[in-house]
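User: Can you help me understand a structure? I only have the sequence.
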Amino acid sequence: MDKVIVLQIFDNDGVDLNGVKLRSTNDVAEALEKMCPEKSGVTVSIEASESTYYESIGKAIYGSHRAGFSGERLRILVDGKPLET
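Assistant: Let's start by predicting it. Here is the structure, written out as tokens:
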């Protein structure tokens, strides 16, 4: 079974990862790289309570991409529903 790392977004002040607020794309990328240097079997789930938190959602997406997560290894949920692009 794949491991899922959840990046939670509650506001535009940053991205929450295990209770720690990550305030920039660099912070997100560095935290993900430290948590899982081997990307296989890991999925990043970006979960936002509202779509209006676009700044933090963007930081989470860009930081995840920089850490090597994209495609099937990255999912985005807004208010519990997949974000359709």
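Now, to help you interpret it: The chain has two helices and six strands. The CA atoms of residues 6 and 25 lie 15 Å apart. Let me know which part you'd like to focus on.
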